[in-house]
């Protein structure tokens, strides 16, 4: 038979054990929360792990993420998908080099080859949709349309088009300088032209300069965090974040890279060094 004192001691041991268990659980949750919110770098690809056969042909200045969450890049006549399991070809080898590509909001893979806009069919082949007004155009995805824009021309008239299903596209504006890229946020289109970021409203046709860099600090790429309404800008000198006309310099470590925002992280791609790095929780580290 346990004495009254022994019963009390046993009860105290149970309570202490229970308290320690609760404390450990709370600390574990706190540590995991800090890890989930902390800024970290994930190396997705580097020249050390890329097969030598893929280093012979340069990758184009385009990166996107598939509906299945695979990073997609292209070099010459081949498209590649990158995941934690490695890199592999996507679809069939094309009959001519790919100039640009993007996934539509419905997941359809669309690409520009010379002066053709194509989509990937069920057999993995790029089929022509429509003949474009000029060759080597860039392409990005909007909510309801695809944006096509002139990057290389000789007449000093660089056009931006909106392409809708059914083979219809509409000219939105003409720029005197090449359009590097276009991204959509809310009711506006944001254009990288030279060393400036311009906002364009298709509704009222207004175009305004919202961020400018030194002339030699040209813009290489832009991407949008639609959750926090942040535009990330990669220039020749580094990466910036823009929100509500507030421009913040982030880093010069990845100057001249191609960027894509996806799933709370900024994917940074250097086509020349074959490096792809994902910066996780980058939005939580920025103070506007």
Structure notes:
This protein has 288 residues and is mainly beta. The protein is 12% helix and 46% strand. It contains one helix and 24 strands. The chain has one helix at residues 4-37, and strands spanning 40-45, 64-65, 71-75, 78-83, 86-89, 100-103, 109-113, 116-120, 126-131, 138-141, 146-149, 158-164, 168-175, 179-185, 188-193, 196-201, 206-212, 219-225, 230-235, 239-243, 246-251, 258-262, 265-270, 275-280. β7 and β8 form a beta hairpin.
Summarize this entry quickly.
The chain is mainly beta and 288 residues long.
Question: Topology, please?
Answer:
Layout: H1 4-37, E1 40-45, E2 64-65, E3 71-75, E4 78-83, E5 86-89, E6 100-103, E7 109-113, E8 116-120, E9 126-131, E10 138-141, E11 146-149, E12 158-164, E13 168-175, E14 179-185, E15 188-193, E16 196-201, E17 206-212, E18 219-225, E19 230-235, E20 239-243, E21 246-251, E22 258-262, E23 265-270, E24 275-280
